[in-house]
Design a protein that fits this description.
- The complex is a heterodimer of chains A (353) and B (314).
- Chain A is built from 17 helices and five strands.
- Chain A has a three-stranded mixed beta sheet, with helices on both faces. In chain A, strands 4-5 form a two-stranded antiparallel ribbon.
- Chain A is elongated, with a radius of gyration of 33 Å.
- In chain B, the strands form two sheets. Chain B has an eight-stranded parallel beta sheet, covered by helices on one side. In chain B, strands 6-10 form a two-stranded parallel ribbon.
- By secondary structure, chain B is of the alpha/beta class.
- Chain B starts with 18 loop residues before the first helix and ends in a 42-residue tail after the last strand.
- Classes of the chains: A mainly alpha (353), B alpha/beta (314).
- At the A-B interface, helix 6, helix 7, helix 8, helix 10 and helix 12 of A face helix 1, helix 2, helix 3, helix 4 and helix 5 of B.
């Protein structure tokens, strides 16, 4: 009996409609239960007594024309049904927002004028995703926006690191260091036929290569997509240190053309005093090199700061390497070719060059 | 309204005319809402350079009331710190909420605190440069703070006490760290600090904390308004009997030490030192190392030729 009662009530409710007039003059009606989603419509009905008949239709805001109103109705009709799972709703939303950006913008505007918060959120989120990661020109094209800024205004970047003496200094330091290292490499090749670099560097490289193949760093484009994945953040300090370090290496390996050479070179350049002696041959800069890259313009305070940063990093690194040493034991050999590039071969047995 | 000129029909072909007008007609709050979702970096580097109206929106303090710099790329700590300061400047003191991962330092916190005394929510995670002293100092300038997160950062019990005293309105505290199963290292510093100085607390998350039953009791005594208590991976607790009853009767939501971590936003790998694999000191072998690669690359960039990937070394 209660079922038929409910059925009757439903029919009754369905029968009461609220009449509205869209911005382009079209008279529409919506079920009362849907109308209840819209605060402004409720207000009009309750306080002004309009909307209950065709002749007294509530005027909708100017952003709401007939087509958009129809879309909004569809949206509300779907979501008002209580039994739906979140998955269903999400799936509907994904399909719903498939329209061009201008339509989407219009819809956002309309939803905003009707104070329909869930739809505002959905449309804004989607519009943001349309813009995300795109270059300026493309954004202007897709959304049909004018290019009306002055040149000066366009060049208002943060990345213009020329302003910051600290960053400028670092860049110069780096450039100088690398030049220095290249020099040294070239000089060394004149003296030495082959040079084998072992141990910790090998561990590192094998970590990169012998370890999880997914460790390879991907391009920027891919990274942007990854941002959208569910976030799970590595928590342990030690872990982060390891990944930091070996990922720095993989950067060196994959992004630079001289990849491996650069990796080896830069590793040599770094002074990491706390590491055990076996690694000294890699990390301690060669004699004379220090004079090479002392820049007259570096003030000692800055240099101290940089040294401290390096030490700190080394400490983190060191503490982590104790843990990860067990991971890979296959030694990887680096050999220098005559022309200053390096060859890397994985050596499955210990001991020969 | 009845005689208003018809707005363009929303079919793609008919949209060409009056295009610019349509975007300009968008209320600035809406444009702001859309652009804000791009995140601080993209707003500064891209969005504000698209066109005049967007620039206006991007420079407006309302865009910078909430700053979220968590999901970062690999452009380097220096850059992020600089951008963060810029963002804080743009907020013109209206900053209400800020969320930072990895790159924050004591001096940055100080900068934020100096210019944003109205801050209600401060969240920092995995910022290894932050010290207890730095945090205490900064928070002492934020009397209106209601929400504080300091996960995976080094913060002492003393510091928390000072924070509790500086912020009488504190309602949420999250101090998460890596859960330790063995050895059973016990420490009630955090629990006692909370109990002593944060009576208004409603929401407390101490994932991975080393508190004991005594600490938990102290919290229950000291924080009568608790509604939500997350004690996952607090393996020193023995949540049974009276203690359990005490928790459940007063607090709406209690997450117990061994509860599921599926909805935990950080890596929940337990540090289990006594495991048979001695090499696995940091629980590395079982972890999918690349699942959260977005967060590793603090200072590297392989595609910005101006940027030196080895900057960190120097």
């Amino acid at each position: 009996m209660s079922e038929s009662y409910l059925a009757i009530m439903k029919r009754e409710m369905m029968r009461s409609f609220i009449w509205v007039k869209t911005a382009d003059g079209s008279i529409q009606r919506m079920e009362q239960e849907i109308a209840m989603f819209f605060p402004m419509i409720c207000e009009e009905v309750i306080y002004k007594g309009v909307g209950t008949s065709k002749n007294h239709a509530i005027s909708l805001p100017q952003q709401v024309n007939q087509a958009i109103f129809s879309l909004i109705l569809d949206y509300c009709r779907f979501h008002k049904v209580p039994g739906r799972s979140n998955k269903e709703r999400k799936s509907y939303d994904q399909k719903f927002i498939r329209m061009d950006s201008n339509m989407l913008r219009g819809l956002a505007s309309a939803a905003d004028s009707l104070q329909l918060k869930p739809l505002v959120d959905l449309t804004c989120r989607t519009l943001a995703r349309t813009i995300e990661g795109k270059p300026l020109e493309e954004i202007r094209e897709i959304l049909n926006l004018p290019d009306d800024l002055t040149e000066e205004e366009k060049l208002e970047p943060l990345k213009n690191t020329m302003d910051d003496p600290g960053i400028r200094l670092l860049n110069r330091l780096n450039a100088k260091k690398r030049k220095e290292l290249k020099e040294r490499e070239r000089l060394k090749n004149v003296e030495v036929e082959e040079h084998v670099v072992e141990r910790s560097l090998d561990d590192l490289i094998s970590f990169i290569n012998g370890g999880d193949p997914k460790v390879v760093k991907t391009s920027k484009g891919k990274k942007k997509n990854k941002k959208k994945k569910d976030k799970k953040i590595v928590s342990s300090h030690g872990k982060e240190g390891a990944e930091d370090f070996h990922d720095k290496e993989s950067h060196g390996l994959h992004s630079k053309q001289q990849g491996v050479e650069e990796t080896v070179s830069s590793m040599r350049a770094v002074e990491i005093p706390n590491l055990p002696s076996t690694e000294d041959d890699i990390f301690t800069p060669k004699a004379g090199s220090e004079d090479g890259y002392i820049d007259d313009e570096i003030d000692p305070v800055m240099k101290e700061m940089l040294d401290r940063e390096v030490e700190d990093f080394a400490r983190r690194l060191n503490s982590n390497w104790v843990g990860s040493r067990g991971q890979e034991r296959r030694p990887v050999r680096f050999s220098m070719n005559g022309n200053g590039t390096t060859r890397r071969h994985i050596d499955l047995s210990s001991g020969h060059s | 309204m009845a005689s208003s000129s018809p707005s363009p029909s929303p079919s793609p072909t008919a949209m060409k005319e009056g295009e610019f007008a349509n975007w300009a007609e968008l209320p600035p709050e809406l444009t702001s809402s859309i652009l804000h979702r791009l995140g601080a970096i993209e707003v500064v580097e891209t969005a504000q350079k698209v066109c005049r109206s967007w620039r206006r929106v991007c420079k407006d303090p309302s865009m910078w009331r909430r700053i979220d710099m968590r999901n970062l790329g690999d452009l380097g700590d220096t850059y992020y710190e600089k951008l963060c300061r810029h963002a804080v400047d743009l907020s013109r003191g209206e900053l209400v909420e800020i969320n930072l991962c990895h790159f924050a330092t004591d001096s940055l916190l100080s900068y934020i605190a100096d210019s944003s005394s109205n801050l209600r929510s401060l969240k920092v995670a995995m910022c290894y440069e932050i010290t207890s002293e730095g945090l205490t100092e900064a928070v002492s300038k934020l009397p209106l703070l209601e929400d504080l997160e300091v996960s995976y950062c080094s913060v002492s019990g003393e510091s928390l006490k000072a924070i509790g005293k500086s912020c009488p309105n504190l309602k949420t505290l999250k101090k998460n760290c890596v859960g330790y199963k063995r050895p059973r290292d016990e420490c009630d510093d955090v629990a006692l600090a909370t109990a002593e100085t944060m009576p208004g607390l409603r929401h407390l998350q101490l994932f991975g904390d080393r508190l004991t039953d005594a600490g938990l009791n102290a919290i229950l005594d000291g924080c009568p308004n608790l509604e939500h208590l997350d004690l996952r991976q607090c393996f020193n607790l023995n949540l049974v009997g009276d203690l359990e009853k005490r928790c459940l009767e007063r607090i709406k939501v209690v997450r117990r030490p061994n509860d599921s971590v599926h909805d935990y936003p950080f890596d929940a790998t337990v540090n289990d030192v006594s495991s048979s694999d001695e090499d696995d000191l940091y629980g590395l072998s079982d972890v999918d190392i690349m699942s959260e690669d977005e967060f590793y690359y603090d200072d590297l960039s392989d595609d910005n030729s101006d940027f030196d990937p080895y900057e960190y070394y120097y």
